[in-house]
Write a structure and sequence with these properties.
This protein is 44% helix and 10% strand. The longest helix has 22 residues. It has 19 helices and 11 strands.
């Protein structure tokens, strides 16, 4: 009886194995056009489709689910020299291509964030891959709606057409977005001219901003949402400006780390009119390394030409991404210098960039004498092909060992002794320019308040002061906070005294007590400091 059972079991095993072997893998079915379903949860479509339907199925990887004449895609190769001492160049990255699930790039995404995530993974795994068929994602209502939401959250003045967010909401947001989508799909979209606004600078000069109309801001935002996931995989870790999951505080923490690691010479770099000198041909060439979509490239060119023949207009959602793409090769060139000059875990040269604000730290050891001048020369050589120049008047070399200070992202940084005089630390204080700016903003709100009720006016003041305090609370800002708080109280008490039609013999410290302005009116009171975390806390 036992032998009979054993024989039956043996006869059944080959039958099960043969059934399993008759199911080819998903990759085999895609390559050879086999019919059926793969055991990956992905349904393979038919071999031929209508070209109009096929255009909507083009995926972010450059592959379509069927075969369509005239459609192709480049395939990337892995850079064997990608890793740089803990940092990764555009390449396999943390998600190797072999570990990406089969069909992940060809399966339709559930939402915009999932699409951006998959584009990032594809770009990270194949550094030479060029994306095409992505214009359809730019024109989706979901993408345009998210771009409109971000533009409305940022607020801003209307463009040259005078259209406001309130007018759009009254007429209907859905109809507004559908009209934009129809123009994009029909190829009739044309950006309007930007409204030019001059903002005075502290040195008597002015900075020109170009404000697009809301319609163009939505299109730029939608384009940025799609392209950002691709180029984010290529950006260097030493770039911090206007990137997801990065902040000015992270850039400050990295600069402070470099100073504490004995890189005492600092090149405070100032680029001369950076956004106004970006060459369109060079920028389009850099974008075309990753994008093989004629409609997307045409849209990018239209956005650039709306601001003039040269330069990227500041004030639009697309300009920060374009600025990062333009200087990405410079970032990686200095990252290579950082690796070559490092001795084990100790770096001799480090590079930090936030938009057009650059700081290069160099070791102050006597064996590195002259390295700061050579680093500045190398930076000029890297910027020359891009048409970008250094501002000779503002670019300087600072020696922090001599107590000299340099400015970065609104802070003055200097090396000082602690109270016990037993070690040094990096003192970070808000710049005088930043303190003057918030005072001017407080004055403007009060002067334009008119007959606004005191509580409503205080809410406006709180919104302005809270943003300033939240940014500068990470530094050594006690004195600056006391200065701004006293100024805010003085201006508010003066306003209340005038509204009572009393002669201004005093500011009104006794009449308008702290209990009234803070307890009744609700003036901002969160002036607590929050020390800047170390660099690893922001990784």
């Amino acid at each position: 009886m036992a032998e009979t059972v054993e024989n039956v079991r043996r006869q059944q095993e080959p039958h099960k194995t043969s059934q399993m072997r008759r199911l080819p893998p998903a990759g085999y079915q895609r390559r050879h056009g086999a019919k059926g379903y793969a055991e990956t949860g992905e349904t393979l479509g038919t071999r031929w489709r209508n070209p109009a339907e096929e255009a909507l199925r083009i995926t972010v990887s450059g592959k379509s689910r069927g075969r369509c004449q005239g459609v192709g895609s480049g395939h990337g190769t892995v850079d064997p020299h990608a890793k740089r001492a803990g940092r990764e160049r555009p390449g396999p990255g943390s998600i190797p291509y072999g570990k990406v699930r089969q069909g992940e790039m060809t399966k339709a995404p559930d939402n915009l964030q999932e699409l951006r995530r998959r584009m990032y993974r594809k770009a990270k795994s194949e550094p030479q891959h060029r994306f095409w068929g992505i214009f359809v994602h730019v024109t989706k209502i979901e993408t345009l709606g998210e771009a409109y939401r971000l533009a409305r959250r940022n607020g801003g003045a209307p463009g040259i057409d005078g259209q406001t967010f309130a007018a759009i909401a009254a007429a209907g947001v859905d109809a507004f977005l559908q009209a934009i989508r129809d123009d994009l799909l029909a190829g009739t979209y044309k950006p309007a001219a930007n409204r030019r606004v001059e903002i005075p600078k502290g040195n008597g000069k002015v900075r020109e901003l170009q404000i697009p109309c809301i319609r163009d801001r939505v299109v730029q935002g939608a384009l940025k949402l799609i392209l950002e996931g691709i180029f984010e995989a290529d950006f260097c870790p030493s770039s911090y400006g206007f990137r997801p999951k990065r902040s000015p505080h992270q850039a400050l923490a990295e600069v402070r780390r470099s100073l504490l690691r004995r890189m005492s010479l600092v090149i405070d770099v100032d680029l001369a009119r950076y956004f106004d000198t970006i060459r369109h041909a060079v920028l389009l060439e850099k974008i075309a390394r990753r994008i093989q979509d004629a409609q997307v490239m045409r849209l990018v060119k239209q956005i650039l030409k709306a601001g003039g023949k040269v330069g990227v207009p500041q004030g639009g959602p697309f300009s920060p991404l374009a600025a990062n793409i333009y200087l990405n090769d410079v970032d990686w060139a200095f990252d290579a210098i950082r690796e070559k000059t490092a001795q084990g875990p100790y770096e001799a040269v480090n590079y930090h960039r936030f938009a057009d604000d650059i700081v290069i730290t160099v070791s102050g050891h006597h064996t590195k004498r002259g390295w700061a001048e050579r680093a500045q020369q190398r930076l000029s050589e890297q910027l020359a092909p891009l048409g970008v120049e250094l501002n000779a008047e503002k670019t300087k070399v600072v020696n922090t060992l001599d107590g000299e200070a340099f400015g970065f992202l609104g802070f003055d940084l200097r090396r000082v002794r602690n109270r016990q005089k037993d070690h040094y630390f990096i003192l970070m204080t808000p710049k005088k320019k930043a303190r003057t700016a918030i005072k001017a903003q407080i004055r403007t709100i009060i002067q334009r308040g008119g007959s606004t009720p005191a509580k409503a006016l205080v809410k406006r003041l709180n919104a302005s002061v809270a943003g300033w305090v939240n940014y500068f609370r990470v530094g050594n800002s006690s004195r600056a906070f006391s200065e701004i708080r006293d100024y805010l109280e003085m201006k508010l008490r003066t306003l209340l005294t005038r509204r009572k039609r009393r002669r201004k013999t005093s500011v009104g410290w006794q009449r308008w007590t702290n209990e009234y302005i803070y307890g009744v009116l609700g003036l901002y009171w969160d002036w607590k400091l929050q020390p800047l975390g170390n660099a690893k806390a922001y990784a």
